[in-house]
Amino acid sequence: xxxxxxxxxxxxxxxxxxxxxxxxxxxxxxxxxxxxxxxxxxxxxxxxxxxxxxxxxxxxxxxxxxxxxxxxxxxxxxxxxxxxxxxxxxxxxxxxxxxxxxxxxxxxxxxxxxxxxxxxxxxxxxxxxxxxxxxxxxxxxxxxxxxxxxxxxxxxxxxxxxxxxxxxxxxxxxxxxxxxxxxxxxxxxxxxxxxxxxxxxxxxxxxxxxxxxxxxxxxxxxxxxxxxxxxxxxxxxxxxxxxxxxxx
Length: 248
Hints:
alpha/beta; 8-stranded mixed sheet; 10 strands
């Protein structure tokens, strides 16, 4: 299947989606051309779901950065918290930058079915993101108890609570899983911003890239729909929205 055919499937839901390979190439081009930095001077952290499909479908070019430092747990929420962000910040080269890529993920099969993919070696589709699907089904069944977070399933319970707070918006949506993923993105974005504001970075720039990571079948690959691309110049304190560098 040609790239344009793959994109046609994904862009029915995410019109600005790029293959993750093209997406990462644009990021690297930007930091080299605009920030005048080599990827080897950039400490990379991601806050994406710990689902194995994300490791399998990760672009090889991310290896040009230092890292990655893994911040995300179920569906990408930065469960490593402030300690994780501060640890990551202490690893960055003095004359370099930090690059944080974050967001939830969702599946879109080659048949165009949202919320599922065919994984390597399996003949039947499975849920993606499984945690979001599970939390959504509990929400529909009125099985989420407000404020209920356990030690044994802390991450899943936290995702459930994020969705519970937006119950009516999700259940009234045309595609509830799509809407739930948007809500989880907002929760991740808000937490990343809180963590960045509470952390000291001894480098030149902070690069924040948020979006939806879209997985597809094993022979299709993955895609990224970018929602935020901000660069913070730590010397001047100026924050610039450079999303056009990705979406043009």
